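Re-running the complex after MR caught last week's input typo. The corrected sequence lines follow. Everything else is unchanged.
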Amino acid sequence: MSKALRLLVPLALVGLLALVPTFGFGLGGVFPGPLSSPGTLQLLAVCFVFSGVALSYDLLFGFTGLLSFGHALYFAAGAYVSAIAVTKWHWSFAEACLVTAAVGLVLPAIVGWISLRTSGIAFAMVTLAFAQAGEILVQKDPHGWTGGNDSLGYDYHHVPAIFVGVFNTKNLYWLALGYAVVVFSIVAWTVRSSPGHVLQAIRENERRVEVLGLRTRRYKLLAFVLGSFLATAGGVIYMLAFNGASPGITTPDFTLMLLVMVVLGGTGTLWGPILGGALYWYADQRLVAVGGSHAIQSLPSVLRTPLSQPLFVLGVLFILVVFFLPGGVVGLAARGRAGRRGLRRLEDSLRRSPRLEGEGL
Amino acid sequence: MSTFLLLTITGLGLAAMYFLVASGLSLIYGLMGVLNFAHGAFLTVGAYATWFAESKLGGISSLTWRFVLASLIGLLVGGIFAALVELVLIRPLYLRHIEQVLVTVGLSLATVALVQGIWGNDPRLYAVPPWLHETTSVGSASIPNDRWIEIAAALLVLAGLKAFLRYTRYGLIIRAGVENRAMVTALGIDVRKAFTLVFAIGGVAASLAGVLSGVYFSEVDPGRGTSLLIFAFIVVVIGGLGSITGSAVASVVVGLTQQYVNYYSSGIGDLSIVLVLALVLLARPASLEGRTA
Amino acid sequence: MPALLEVRDLHVHLGESHVLQGVDLDVPAGGITALLGRNGVGKTTTLRALLGLMPRRGSVRLDGDAIEREATHRIVLRGLGYVPEDRDVFAGLTVDENLKLAVRDGEDARYDLVYDLFPELKQRGRQRAGTLSGGQQQMVAIGRALLNRNRLLLIDEPTKGLAPALVADVARVLERVAESETALLVEQNLAVVRRLAGAIVVLDQGRVVHTGPPTDLDDEALVHRLLGVGHAA
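Corrected-run output:
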């Protein structure tokens, strides 16, 4: 593909997507209603949010080789801090965004600084533990701010009117689309910049980068903070889309979901997580509809029970992708060069370096 | 004093469950390098199999025997499930550790969803023999009887595992494999059989934790496995990956800390555990390289 | 008569580097064949590839049977003993346990032979291998391989890092081994090679560049060209 074309195709795609709220027609059973209906736009908006968040996760996992199990923490921080600021502290939306942005930078800087003292599986465990602390904090409902087990609905007086209400779903859609585009641009620019090359070199062979005299921990921390900050921003838009925050986004399962999105789409690629995030959310939502559909409900219960559980279908699909499609959906096209290599390298870094390797079993 | 005693015994009861999950997790990681996210699913499968078996064993009038028999069935099912997982899903991805972890992630999501699909999201009541929920007086404290069972079960498993690792040929293979898997194969030993075995052992121990948690909470729900798994992860990290004794000590530390802190500081016990973990990791990140089983 | 071990066109890739680029070598039955070469030319890799410890391509025949596709443990059970470069004894296991683990199913372990060669192993049976000295660990590693009756021993730098007195001990043991067994020996100490080997094979940059009798090592020009200065012993 020529360079111009490479730029043109995404631009045309974004342009087309931007026009979707003006399309009054439907696509058969693909969406819950016409493209311009609030239901469809809401579904697509959240798809875009997950595209962006999945890509922010891939910046860590796929591009830098950091297997974090705590990405949910930063996404949830975005949703909860912004929701609490407007609802409990009665701040303006702009002020709420400012404080959320500050949290989105400081929190990963602290957690990253501690966690990056470890690597490999240890890093996965520590990030998981910190995310767990976040989940517990939300459950404990300090000062009645988080709502504990219940969702925290936002106070719509303090949220810009253009994002409130069913009729404004199209604005939310554009905001989410913009978010995905911005995340894509930032990550694309980052991985092609010279620090980005260092990140990928760290993934390939961290020790070699250290030998070159670069302080790898600083670069990893940079990637960690950037990826987490982008996830925090996604959390704010998610909060707008769902009129608040809910404890489900604080759980380890949420991070695992991001991992599934990235791997489904294609690890270590730009387009993979964009597609994976959107497809996963779409499938998760639509499988509920399909699961409740007549076709599924008329099946014998042996088939009906599993097929009506979206997470079961996605879990099995995920296993199949790991086995048969290691490059994810994007790898289908590019036959998984980067993705597969990335996984292999990451594996090397996680291995506990036994002196003999590769028993040929 | 009596409160302190109750807290201690209850903490040890919790520790027992953590240990049962963590010991298998730790052995599997130590030997195979696989961080097994499906371990919670083993627990859930064992716990539900026990509950299901019990509901079908109405013919046995003694509640105690019915429960014992149902538990044995549950452990068997959990063990077989775990062994099958190793044979079918883990083995074909041999040495591809990341893919193996991803597969266990997918499996844990799918299993929990399947259990939800079949038996619903609501907790299922465990019909346990009534004497388990009576109390025994120790000094001035009244201790629920199930705590003793939990502690005894964990001690038995600990002793059994230690003896197995120490005195049997497979135990020897596992201990050596935790150190250097490749060298074990270079001695003419098919180390994959040991892989299936540690999965089966892990599955049985996790199922036992599932049954005991059913007794402790009087019910079982689909999310139980995942929530215990997180604490088991923390236990494994603190105790050192691959070390059974380390897991045992770390479970006690975690269980007791949780109970004491929860009681004396209005319920931030779980947070304190995360803090302990962070401190341990900062103090000695090398604990993760633990090798001796 | 065909060789006991026939290796043809053996290739190994490690990441982007092509470590073995078509190794051909024969190990005749009986005695010691020494595999020589500068550091990093692929000697250890050759042994490990023969054992299936790393992905390899090419043909490997043991007594005429193709073994290049078999799993490591199956290859070993055909009668291959392995003494790895860094000894790789199990540090957390006792000396007894290290030996016991090495006994192959259904075979009579030659404890008498091993204890005769290394009386210390008997005395230190209950000691953890990790607490042994380097020389003692080497005894465990060699003893563990000699417990079984092997058709072929693969021995990787048994004298590496040992004090001169211990080097002589190890050489004595290998001399005894050579009387009754076949071995492919990687060794840097040319004095030891001259004393033990019946044939030498020299590897350079992933290929065999010289094969001949050990007397070839008397040719200083050849040694200098193939093995570098540091090797003239």
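None of the earlier attempt is carried over here. Chain A touches chain C through seven residues (CB under 8 Å). The first strand of chain A starts at residue 152 and ends at 153.
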